[in-house]
Write a structure and sequence with these properties.
Shape: elongated
Order of helices and strands: HHEHEHEHEHEHEHHHHH
Largest sheet: 6 strands, parallel
CATH architecture of the largest domain: 3-Layer(aba) Sandwich
Distance between the termini: 38 Å
Strand order of the largest sheet: 2-1-3-4-5-6
Helix content: 40-55%
CATH superfamily of the largest domain: Response regulator
Number of strands: 6
Structural class: alpha/beta
CATH class of the largest domain: Alpha Beta
């Protein structure tokens, strides 16, 4: 099937395809203007290569951190931004934060977040302020140009795309929701609990998530309260919370 057939949604030999073959030529649409942001040189070059030799999307700007991305948006006026989820200068969720800002400042710009994290919480955070013109894809899709282009075209036209792996995880999580002791935790609390399960201290968590130590302590105490963990001297609530988390995230 040719790319023209994929765009029109017509299959080989179908009635729609044969009618389209006799229709007058349609005006050529300009390529979708795309700004790419990723702190990895290899990823940036992979994307340059992926979008070469095609006319559906054109890279008009490339940058490696959140501040440069803001400048590129103003100077290049893209239709779509394709960004990593974590970038300098903070090393935090720069991609999701950029998407949230664009919702307010440039609602017409689509955002495709590329992530190596198969974590539904990140996708939920991306879509929290609205699903239109937003996509969350895992970086394993970088080798599939057709899927990348379909996501770009979807958000440019007002749609949304979530990586199939994330959808499966969301469905699985929803199926456990009624019985899970983690069901009452917020996305941020789950993120903190995952770090606790990795053995991270409160100061380390504060640094990783760019939070104050007081804010981390508040979240941790909320986690203990929601999980119903007693304040007993003979057992660490931190260890108990980690065990609860790990028991529900076994491979």
């Amino acid at each position: 099937m040719s790319e023209t057939q994929l765009q029109s949604g017509a299959g080989p030999g179908s009635a729609v395809s044969s009618v389209a073959a006799w229709a007058p030529p349609q005006p050529r649409r300009r390529p979708i203007r795309l700004v790419v942001a990723d702190d990895s040189y290899l990823i940036r070059e992979s994307l340059r290569h992926a979008f070469a030799d095609q006319d559906r999307a054109a890279i008009v700007g490339v940058c490696s951190d959140g501040q440069a991305l803001e400048t590129a948006i103003e100077e290049c006026r893209p239709d779509v931004v394709m960004t990593d989820i974590r970038m300098p200068p903070s090393g935090g969720e720069e991609g999701i934060q950029a998407a949230a800002r664009l919702r307010e400042t440039h609602p017409e710009i689509g955002v495709v977040v590329l992530s190596q994290y198969a974590e539904p919480a990140y996708a939920v955070a991306l879509l929290q302020s609205g699903t239109s013109r937003r996509a969350y894809l895992l970086k394993e899709r970088l080798s599939h140009r057709g899927e990348l282009l379909q996501a770009i075209e979807a958000v440019a036209s007002g749609g949304s795309v979530i990586d199939p792996t994330i959808v499966e995880l969301l469905i699985e999580t929803r199926g456990r929701a009624e019985t899970s002791p983690l069901a009452g935790l917020t996305a941020r609390e789950l993120e903190l609990l995952a770090l606790i399960a990795q053995g991270k201290s409160n100061p380390a968590i504060a640094e990783l998530l760019v939070l104050t130590k007081r804010a981390v302590e508040k979240h941790v105490n909320s986690i203990f309260f929601k999980l119903g963990l007693p304040d007993a001297q003979y057992v660490s609530r931190r260890v108990m919370a980690a065990l609860i988390f790990l028991s529900e995230h076994e491979c």
